[in-house]
Amino acid sequence: MKPLASTILVISATLLLGSTAQAQSPAPMPAPIPETMPFEIPFGTPITLDHAKKVGAAAEEEMNHHGWKMACAVVEPTGDLVYFIKHDGTQYASIAISQGKARTAATFRRPTKVFQDLINGGQPVILSFPGIVATEGGIPLVENGKLIGAIGCSGGSSAQDGVVAKAAADTVK
């Protein structure tokens, strides 16, 4: 047998055996269906401008602490803008991204990192939902167990955006 023919035969046998082993693996079990609705946070009175400014001040303090240039948007539960801050020199794309993260966190009543994790876990279908910004940095603002708005931050890495958004959200009790 010629060397090329034997090489082709070995590769073909390897591929055939590999596909046979793959075809015999059991199908994954479907995820259990939860009994309660996830992220069912009741709506509260929308965040006021004065309260939004305090949340924004906490975000700005965290940005300054790290020297990060960012844009942060505070929205009410409808996703509509209440307050916005942006450091000088922040990339312009972060203006719309921060507002999108805040809107996503408010209207879906969950952190935007949840969507990022779903995509990273192999469920990109989430991207077909309208109005989702699926990257860390958007967090709902929950006061006394009720959704009053959300904050979205953009300008750094997803993790940096998340750190600033969390510092701001943690000021709401």
What can you tell me about this protein's structure?
The chain has helices at residues 3-23, 49-66, 93-107, 112-120, 158-169, and strands at 71-75, 81-86, 138-143, 146-154. With 173 residues, the protein is α+β, with helices and mostly antiparallel strands. Strands 2-1-4-3 form a 4-stranded antiparallel beta sheet. A hairpin with a 2-residue loop joins β3 and β4 (146-154). The relative contact order is 0.18.
Secondary-structure map:
Layout: H1 3-23, H2 49-66, E1 71-75, E2 81-86, H3 93-107, H4 112-120, E3 138-143, E4 146-154, H5 158-169
Antiparallel strand pairs: 1-2, 1-4, 3-4
Tally of contiguous helical segments: 5
What coarse outline follows from CA principal-axis ratios? globular
Largest sheet: 4 strands, antiparallel
Strand ordering within the main sheet: 2-1-4-3
Name the descriptors.
single chain, alpha+beta, 43% helix
Quick overview:
It is built from five helices and four strands; from the N terminus they run H-H-E-E-H-H-E-E-H.
